[in-house]
Amino acid sequence: MERENAWKSYKSSDEKKIEALCEGYKDYLFKGKTEREGIKYVIKKAKEAGYVSLEDLIKKNKKIKSGDKIYAPCMGKTIALFNIGKKSLEEGMNILGAHLDSPRLDVKQNPLYENSDLTYLDTHYYGGIKKYQWVTLPLAIHGVVVKTDGSVVDIVIGEDETDPVFCVTDILIHLAQDQMVKKASTAVEGENLDLLIGSKPIKLKKDEKDKKDPVKKNILQILKKKYGMEEEDFMSAELEIVPAGKPRDMGIDSSMIIAYGQDDKVCAYTSLVAQLNVTNPEKTSCTLLVDKEEIGSVGATGMQSKFFENTVAEILELAGYKSSLSIRRCLQNSCMLSSDVSAGFDPLYASCFETKNAAFLGRGMVFNKFTGSRGKSGSNDANAEYFGKIRGIMERNKIFYQTAELGKVDVGGGGTIAYILSLYGMEVIDCGVAVLNMHAPWEVTSKADIYETEKGYEAFLKEA
Prior knowledge:
The protein has a nine-stranded mixed beta sheet with strand order 1-2-3-13-4-14-20-16-18, sandwiched between helices. A hairpin with a 5-residue loop joins strand 7 and strand 8. It contains twelve helices and 22 strands. It is globular, with a radius of gyration of 24 Å. Helix 1 crosses helix 12 and helix 7 (262-277) packs across helix 12 (447-462). Helix content is 29%, strand content 24%. The mean pLDDT is 95. It is an alpha/beta fold.
């Protein structure tokens, strides 16, 4: 039952393919740090591969047929890609589903303030984080500001080498006696995760008296000059604070990648590559990249919304299906890989894992028959018949794969979008890439696992 390390089997030709795939992945990680940026990247690649907009097809009432490639975004944060297959859509689709959002700090709607000649942005953390990991790091600001006239200003500060960066400060060790005896969960308070963004006061004219909050006023002057932005515009802004810097190869052997947001962008990218690589599938292939998974898949762009169901209904209408039962049959007869990461075994924290059922870096893509916590609470538990079918696909295509649980039974747990899609009656199982440092500002993956996962996704989409 012990799985082999995939690196042992690779020839030089395989390693060249691995490097090519991972260079593209690193490019995506840097250009798609937020959901909006990720969607723009996906649409660009989809168009280059011949995909057309569902919205345009609906406007033209253009009928779709086998071989058509379609993309359908939702609010710039979620997207579904379809490659229409030869078989009837009522026979179902092969679906890959990953999420684009990652843990981060979000700027509040009334965030800007000055204290002791320093100016800050007030933040609210998003998703599950260890708050103490986010202090003293170089951070960047990504997002949009939407003005009352509807105009949108894209903002990225901290990624270019000439850009300034930002940070959340921490108390020096010499004065940290009280902090050091606190629990890790309270050593840094959520309300103290404010971003330091400036310290220089505005220059006053000779006849002007001292102004209140001169550093804040200087910041506002800069924002006005560079972005045409007023302080009130923060109310309709979505600004995300993420680690600054590019993804990097990791290890003397360059066998790993260290980067922000690999949960779950590593599965999103491999799903995208697999979707774009598949041509003329028997069953319609679909890749679904969604928002809000880290906070429960809620909202209009989360998996709990009706976006996907509505989009499939539009596809069926353009394909000539008139029965209201068609969408139910299509979704129920579909098969899905819920593409999400798994916790990689860390020998420095071995006590948190049960090693017979843990995911090891370098041993291929990871299947989680169930997720949830403790008594499988909140889990989609895939049935044995479906897992047997998936195993057959992997083994016929010589994919390195392994199975895992998310730590020891009583230690913790987690969830994915799998249970939501299973509500349609379709077969769903979780699978993806093992990650070290999951939910930390910088996460680690194995290039071998990325390669095997992309191959596994591609094999699944080709299945009849």
